[in-house]
Specification:
single chain; mainly alpha; 15 helices; 1% strand; globular
Length: 440
């Protein structure tokens, strides 16, 4: 990172540049709005708009896919014309409007489009600023994305508790309104703390002409990133069921009543994923740091394959629990879903934050937002696959459905492992495309 573009030096917050805290809180509240809306979306469609499960699953998948499609163009616009700061501001305002529009039934589809379009500008432009907070050789950058990922999940933890509770108790529109307020808080935090973020080069025809070109090495690196993203598409087909068919199973497949007679709100289970991220991220980061000091490097792609394997195994186990409970004509205990979310999250931590770090650090100079957008683009096809898989929920035995989803995740694990065998150096300490040394 050039000194000209690094943020001003000075006091750090929590051992990292102050800008990381700004990005952390900005992303936290943006994720509060995103996950808050997502936590109640399927219920809103099936219970309030009276959509059939198959159609609602397709709408959910198409929306989630569009959310990951728009960052491709948003990242290009940020890199070439708008700049990251303006892209974040425009995206935040657009998303806030979309969330408030969700309060009106007639604006349902336009609201989804507004949120997805705003997200396209916001998501890659914010995440791509993390790497710019650190100078070359700053070892703190190796844990920055894991910390940033905690911010994502802090918002994801709070949102079902707030938006979900408001939606279930007072009406779904109140949940959407709370999500819109969260988006406005995100914008305010970003504007208040932007002086701590990396300075951007001047925009205009001259600046675009000076933009670095991709050489052969950069093109090969980018091609590898595209290959990794293609495999992550398969993984996301399984991963994204946590807000779709898993949410439906939380409503119909488990016993949510406690001994006191109180029934656990179905939307609250969406918070377990984020809670587990808080608990296990520092444990894993500390373990990775200890092993790194001992020189025990594990290839990044092999570790990502390990994460996909854990996620696949969690779905298979859930399928067995579901099959047993359905065979005995009863509902599974809510404890099974709690345990599933914990195991599922451990697998997630071995693949998603690491993939984001990989794309941020391997990005060719001048193409960082575009590279980050490519990572999110995997979510586009992944959510289309997830939506298509979700339509099978009403057509087959639910236990067998979860086993099928587990097999999809297992396929992605095998593909990542094979790619890792071919590119053994990717993700090792000190390599050009490195990232934190994260090992199992």
């Amino acid at each position: 990172m050039s000194p000209a573009t690094c943020p001003a030096t000075g006091k750090n917050w929590f051992g990292h540049p102050r800008g990381l805290t700004v990005l952390f809180l900005t992303e936290m509240w943006e994720m509060f709005s995103f996950f808050g809306m997502r936590a109640i979306l399927v219920y809103y469609m099936t219970m309030h708009l009276d959509m059939g499960q198959e159609y609602a699953s397709l709408v959910y998948g198409a929306y989630a896919a569009f959310v990951y499609f728009t960052p491709v163009f948003g990242g290009m616009l940020a890199d070439r014309w708008l700049g990251k700061e303006r892209a974040v501001v425009i995206g935040a305002v657009t998303m806030a409007f979309g969330h408030f529009m969700m309060s009106f039934d007639a604006l349902f589809y336009p609201a989804l489009c507004m949120i997805a379009l705003g997200n396209g500008l916001f998501l890659p432009s914010l995440a791509s600023q993390v790497e710019g907070l650190y100078r070359d050789g700053d070892t703190r950058s190796k844990s920055a994305y894991s910390i940033y990922y905690v911010g994502i999940n802090l918002g994801g933890f709070l949102s079902p508790l707030v938006c979900g509770t408001l939606g279930e108790a007072y009406g779904w529109h109140w949940g959407f309104t709370a999500a819109g307020i969260g988006m406005l808080l995100s914008l305010v935090i970003y504007l208040a703390g932007r002086r701590y973020l990396p300075r951007e080069p001047a925009r205009g025809a001259g600046a675009r002409a000076a933009r670095p070109r991709m050489d052969q090495a950069a093109r090969k690196r980018f091609a590898l990133l595209v290959g990794i993203a293609a495999i992550v598409v398969v993984f996301r087909g399984a991963y994204e069921q946590n807000g779709n068919t898993i949410a439906l199973w939380a409503d119909t497949g488990i016993d949510r009543q406690l001994a006191s007679g109180w029934v656990i709100p179905m939307t609250w289970f969406q918070s377990i994923n984020s809670l587990a991220v808080f608990i296990f991220t520092p444990i894993l980061v500390a373990r990775w740091a200890r092993l790194a000091k001992r020189g025990l490097d594990t290839p990044l792609l092999a570790r990502m394959a390990f994460g996909a394997t854990i996620v696949g195994a969690s779905y298979v186990a859930l399928g067995l629990v579901t099959a047993w409970s359905e065979a005995h004509g009863t509902r599974a205990s809510w404890i099974w879903l709690f345990v599933w979310f914990v195991v599922f999250t451990i697998g997630e931590l071995y693949i998603l934050p690491v993939g984001l770090a990989l794309f941020g650090r391997m990005a060719p100079e001048g193409f960082r937002a575009t590279s980050i957008a490519t990572w999110f683009f995997a979510g586009f096809f992944g959510n289309l696959l997830a939506g298509a898989l979700g339509t099978l929920w009403s057509q087959m035995n639910h236990g067998l459905f979860f086993v099928l989803v587990g097999a999809v995740s297992g396929l992605s694990a095998a593909l990542l492992y094979m790619l890792g065998r071919r590119h053994r150096g990717v993700g090792r300490h000190g390599d050009a495309g490195g990232t934190p040394v994260l090992v199992g």
